[in-house]
Structures are given as C-alpha cells and as structure tokens.
C-alpha cells in the first residue's frame, strides 16, 4: 500500500539546491520498494556561495586514477560530509577542481595507488601544497572483499583506508631529481636495446653471405667486408639504412655513458659499489637511484623480494613447490644485476667457481639469477656498512659466520 511520507532533511535541501527547511513530498510504496541495503549514497560537496558556511577544515580524497579521468571519493573531516565526483583530464576539469580548493584555502590529502602516467598530477598537487599519499596496489587490492569492482568502489576503498589508523599502505616515492636521473638510465638502456637489434640484423645479413664475424664484424675491416657484399636492391637498401641508424645511435650512447660515469663519480656510495667484481658505474648508479636508501630494508631477503629475484611459492602441508622468479620491482635493475653477475663470473675466480657449481646442479638460467641475487645482497651490505669489496672479503657478512663466544677464537 502506497503511503505519502513527509521528509525534511537540511542536508538534502542544502546539497540539492532547495531552500533550507523546504518540505519535500515523496510517495513511498512499501509493497514494491527494494529491501534496505548497507549502501551509502555520497553527496557532492560543492562550495556554497553566500551561505556564510564555514569552509571544510580538511578534505581527504580517495582517488582512483586513470590516464583520461579520475574517480574521487572525499570526506570533510570536520563535519563528516561525504561526496564523490568523476573528473575528466582532457577538458581540465580535474585541474580546475583542485585549484578551486586551493583558492578556498582548503587543506587536502589525496591517496591513490601507484600507477603510471600520473606525473603531471603529482606536480600539480606539489604546486598547490597538497599532501599526496601513494599506496601499494597489491596490498590495497588485498583489502578488497567484494568480487564486484568499479571505479566508484575503488575510490571509496581508498578513502576508507585513508580514514583508518595505519590503514593506508604508503610506499616510498623518489625525489624529482632521482626520477630524472632514472630517465637518463632508461633512455640509454632503450637506445642500447635498439642498437643491439640493429647489430643482430646486420649479423644475419653477413651470415647469409657466408661471413661469421661476431665482434670482428664491427671493426673497420669487418665493416668494409660487410659493405662489399653484392646484394639485391632492397637488401642493399636495408643494409644501408641499418648502418646509418647504428652510426646515429653510437654517438648518443657514448654521450649518455659519459654522463652516467660523471654522475657516478660524484656519489661516494656508487664508488664503494663499483669495487665489486662485475659492477660498473651504470649498475652502481642504477642500484643507488632505485633502492634509494639501504635503511628501507631489514636485510638481504627483503631486498631480494623487492627486486623480484626470489621464486614464487605454492606450498601446502608437507609439499613445497617453487616456481619462476616473481619479476617484481625494477626490470632495469634486475637486468643490470644479471649482467653484473655474469661479468663477475668472468673476472673473479671465486665467483666463477660458484657460478659453475650452481650451473651444474640447477642449470645456467637458474644459476644466473641466483648469482644476480648474491650480487644484489652484497651491494646492499657494502652500501649499508660503507665498505668496499675488499673489506667484505676480509670481514665477511654476518650471515653464516661463526660467533665468538666468551672470547674463545
């Protein structure tokens, strides 16, 4: 049976543009209405001009960020008023929204998952002196209970974690200077990968003509021999273009390499790490920039997990099953550590003995990863103790060392 219910709610009238205290008549059919749920409809908090209301003390915003838009859920900590909005990036709606909050002198704290393509948003909040918390996506995802996933629910989950005491899983964010230096490392790395692909194609051209020159192909005599082959018209065009691309990349890579070496000279921690076999300025500088500070980790196990150099595990009861490595963290640093481990095995007899022993037992691929993890842990302790490699060899690590009890040696 339908009944007419009188509803007077000052907050509804305020946020829906109705005069304060106006009576709203609504027809409620208790026979056909849906069952009550725990869902809470959030209202849109907007500035009320001319009302004389006090501005919010602080806004806490959970932001589900996407490259083209962001869904936000916000709460005023003083009055408890909640709201949600969808802000588009292309039209500048998101930037206008945050700049209006700054003009109203509102203190703002924004929480969002670590994601890409958000550099402009981070700079905007820093310019407006707003607080930005970056959260661990895996730990945030673990707090989600429902199978249903929408942008609105993601924003509400971030807001709920921000309101909980120690509920938001914050992660460390590098400084803008470190981020810019990382871009230099990534730029050089990508250019080297491009040059490697070009060199592999030229090697294929040479081998099709019966020349297997390997490294000698890049000498002056090897290049003359490569250019002397009589090829079909389009094969000749391909060889010419590849050689031109390689000639253009080589000076740029040399310039970037020189800049990396100069930057490494100005950092004493990189000089300590470069004393390790197989570690050069590129690996040492990348390790320092990506790790940030050794105090972030309690030990080598946490560092190996952060770099994705430990295996996945799916164990139950008495059965243990280890899978491939996790491949989390920086793929650039992981690649450089593997290269450093292979370099250490070539120049150092002890590292070569360990590598061959592991390769015979578990295979070369697993041995390379295991030695890379050993390099990472060694660099970590060298940095934390401010030792060079000779001191590590002399005094050793605290792991696996016999303790001296009661002065007995």
Quick recap:
50% of the residues lie in helices and 13% in strands. It is an alpha/beta fold and 409 residues long. It folds into four domains: 1-36, no CATH class; 58-163, YqgF/RNase H-like domain (Nucleotidyltransferase, domain 5, 2-Layer Sandwich), CATH 3.30.420; 175-266; 269-314 and 322-409, no CATH class.
How far apart, in Å, are the first and last alpha carbons?
92 Å
Query: Strand arrangement, largest sheet?
Result: 5-4-3-6-7
Helix % is: 40-55%
Mean pLDDT figure: 84
Element order, helices and strands?
EHEEEEHEHEHHHHHHHHEEHHHH
Number of helices: 15
Radius of gyration: 30 Å
- Amount of beta strand: 5-15%
Low-confidence stretches: 1-55, 399-409
Protein topology:
Elements: E1 2-7, H1 10-15, E2 24-29, E3 58-65, E4 69-76, E5 82-88, H2 93-103, E6 107-113, H3 119-127, E7 131-135, H4 137-142, H5 151-163, H6 176-208, H7 220-227, H8 233-265, H9 268-273, H10 281-291, H11 300-306, E8 311-313, E9 322-325, H12 331-347, H13 349-362, H14 364-385, H15 389-395
Parallel strand pairs: 3-6, 6-7
Antiparallel strand pairs: 1-2, 3-4, 4-5, 8-9
Helix pairs in contact: 6-8, 6-10, 8-10, 10-12, 11-14, 12-13, 12-14, 13-14
